[in-house]
Structures are given as C-alpha cells and as structure tokens.
Cytochrome d oxidase
Amino acid sequence: MEIGLVELSRLQFAMTAMYHFLFVPLTLGLSILVAIMETVYVMTNRPIWRQMTKFWGMLFGINFALGVATGITMEFQFGMNWSYYSHYVGDIFGAPLAIEGLMAFFLEATFVGLFFFGWDKLSKVQHMVVAWLVAIGSNFSALWILIANGWMQNPVGAAFNPETMRMEMTSFFDVVFNEVAQAKFVHTVSAGYVTASVFVLGVSALYLLQERHKDLARRSIAVASAFGLASALSVVVLGDESGYSASHTQKMKLAAIEAMWETHEAPAPFTAIGFPDKEARETHYAVEIPWVMGLIGTRSLTQEIPGINDLVDEAEDRIRDGLIAYDALMTIRAERDATSPELRATFEAHSENLGFALLLKRYVDDPREATEAQIKQAANDTVPGVGPLFWAFRIMVALGFSFIAVMLYFFYRASFRRMQFPRWSLYAAVAIIPTPWIAAELGWFVAEFGRQPWTVDGVLPTALSVSHLSVADLLISLAGFVIFYTVLFVIEMSLMVKYIRKGPFQDVAETEAWQERHIHRLRTHDGQGPFANPAE
C-alpha cells in the first residue's frame, strides 16, 4: 500500500470535513436562537423581536447556503477517494446518510425558503412554526450524520459476510441507538448552540461599542447569554458522557488522550498538564489530579482504565487471533459451497478480530506470511498520535469552561444589572468570537485522529480504505478543493461582514415607531418607573 496515497487522501478529507464544520455549528445554533426570537415576537407582538428574527435569520441563511455547498463536495469523496471503504461498509454507513438526505435535509431546505419568503404570506403563528421546522430539520440532519459517524467509532449492529466480503447490517435499531452516536449528537449540537451564542454575543457587543442598534443588541445579549449558559453547561456534562462511553468502546483513544502509558490502580488520576513522549512512552513533568480520570472514565473508584502499553499487548493478541479468521476466510473463498461447517464455525469464532489481521496488509500482501516483527509493528500502529491528542483535548476543555464563565457573567449583567455592560467586557465578547470554532475543530480532531489507524474502529484499517488513485490525481483534486473552498470562504466572510456592518435594516421604521409609543405609554403610566428615562 502506497503510504503517500493514504496520507494525501486523509489530508484531503480532513481539510474538506473541517472546513465544512466551520458552517455546521453556527447553523445548528442560530436556527434555534432565531426560532426563540420569533416565538417571543409572536408572544409579545413587539416589532423589535421581529427585527431581531430577520437580522439573525439573514446571517443564518448566508451560513446555511455555504454549509450546503461544502457538505455536498465532502460527501462525494466517499466514492472518489474512499471507494473500498464505501464498498466494504456501504450497507451500514449509507443508510443514515440516505435518510439524512431524504428526510432531514429536504425538510430543512423546504422550510428555509418559506422562512425567508413567507413573512407576508403566512400568519405570525404559521411563520413561527416554519422557523421551528427549520431548526428541527437542521438538528435532525446532524443526528443522522452523527449516527453514521458514531458507527465508525463503535461498529455495532453489523457483521462481516464471508460470501460478499462486506460488512452487512444486522440491526438498524442498534445502529441508530448506538451509545457513541447518541453521546456525540447531544455533545455536538450543544457545541453548536454555544458557537451561535458566542457569535450573537460578540456581534451584539460590537454594536454596543459602536453605539448602534442598542435595543436589538441588549435583547440579543440577554437571549444569547441565557441560551449559551445552558448550552455550555450541557457541553461539559455531555463531554463527560463521551469520556465514559470511550472507556469501554475506544479504550486506546481514551488512553492516548490522557497519555496514560501504564495501567494505574483504580481510580486513575487525570493528567492536567504534561509533555507526552511517544518514543520513550512516558509523560514528562506530568501534573496529576488524583481520582478524576477514574471517576470520568468508569464512574467508579474500583475499575481500572487500561494503559497504552497493555492495550498494545492486547492488540498483538487480537492480531494473532484475527489471523485465524483470515486464514479461514481465504479457505472459504476458495472452497465456496464445499466449505465445511467446522471451518465456517472457526471463522465465526474469530471473525471479531479479522480487522486486526488486516492491519498487517500495510506490510505484507498476505497477513499469514507476516513476521513476528511485522505483527509487533502492526500492534504498535494502533497507538495514535498521543501528543497532538493530549493537547488538543486540554485546549478544548479549557475553552469549554471559559464559555461557562463568559455566559454566566453576561447572563448576570443582563438579568440583574439592567443590561449594563462594562466596555472591557464588550471588547472581550468581540475578541472571543472565533474561540468556539477552535474548540469545535479540536473536538473533531480528537474524535477522528484518535480513531487512527482505523476508518471503522477495529474493523477496517485506514490504509485499506482508499481508492486506487495516483498521487497526481489526489494533488490535482486537493488543489481544486483548496481553490474552491478559498473562494467560498471569501464569499462567506464578505457577506457576513457586509450584513453585520449594515445591521438590522428591515422593519426599522415600524420598530422605532412602536418603541416611541411604548416609552410614551410607560412614562404616562408611571413617571418614576425604570423605563421613564431609559439608560443608553
């Protein structure tokens, strides 16, 4: 297997996937925030909330359109660059993707049009329902995508068929309710809600600093801080659930994230900081917090978390066991219908580790001819890049806790300090706008890079999943994607900056007239009330 081909294929897919995910979190979060704002408009009949819905809805629409364009090109790569992967597991992986396209995406796309062009054709309640259907469709799309991805992390509800030489679905229920998929879904959408909340918070803070659209900005901060606080807390709680799931579905990933080289006595400590050394298999200058990792990973004080060295030894045993399955499989293919029941029983007994035997194909065409050194090397290959995973995870977690602090502060100021915000806090809100995207990208890096060397964990090695393309083909397509995505990025940023600078330009006269009447009524009713002389 040509290593350059595999690396280029991985680079291309990583680039397109992570670029696409720049749009997904904001789409998920803004769809909910916009629906909330329109619901308040329907309940209060205050035009300012209609103006807010239209303004943030416009930014949602720009982001949604660019996200669709990047998502389509990303999915084409399964057939172009990863054709053997598509052939091997297409029966399982293709089902949730098809459902996402037929149900969720069409639901979302249909009602997006009604949302933007139905303001004067639908009643207020009907339009609010449309806004919520757009939000539901957006989140429903994420659900099916993450079910597909969750199966790659924890391949349940499927079995290898020696007749077709493919993985086939045995339980759709198990695939849909895969614990990894469900944990990833709620964690990912919560991260999207935080992203949108920080975005709305930052843009609104910019308006307050510029002393523009202050009424819209203050209300937007109130909504974003409340929604963002709940979402940020959810991200941390649900991230803990993902760690617990990994402790029994992806043990090597969890050990690599923690740079846990040796198996600790229960409960294992959490390494807050350190410098992992993969060659020496130790972590220099480690600062450990007792018990924490054991509680996160096992929810107990007595259960061990295996270290990398023990997991490598286990992988070597599984490779040797997988060789028995591989040898039986080759005999079944040769004998076909003449295969004895005993041989088929042998294959079934060892088929769970067939994927580990396939790791040897990186070094030898026939795994049965592998040397002891090659078996040990293949076992060592099951250790992902510890250093990058270790630091990516900690930066992500640090950002997650910082979002809780930021949202709590702005929620307090909005709720108990009459929406008065010090200028330093507004500058800080603007400065942190990019940080949730950094956290989200790091999260995907941990999830996908931590799964290596597998495309489907324990089933299909990445080195076997690629199409038979030339390096030149990949370089040309990679250059094409870079150019295409660069153009889309320029368009996205230009449009977003243009409409943020323009501000809420729809329904301005109606909103201002209503606001003047409202303030007049408050002054007439109670000259000493808090709205008698509204603070600027």
Q: What stands out?
A: The mean pLDDT is 89. The beta strands are 158-161, 166-169, 270-277, 282-289, 454-456, 460-461. The first helix runs from residue 3 to 20. The chain is about 70% helix and 5% strand.
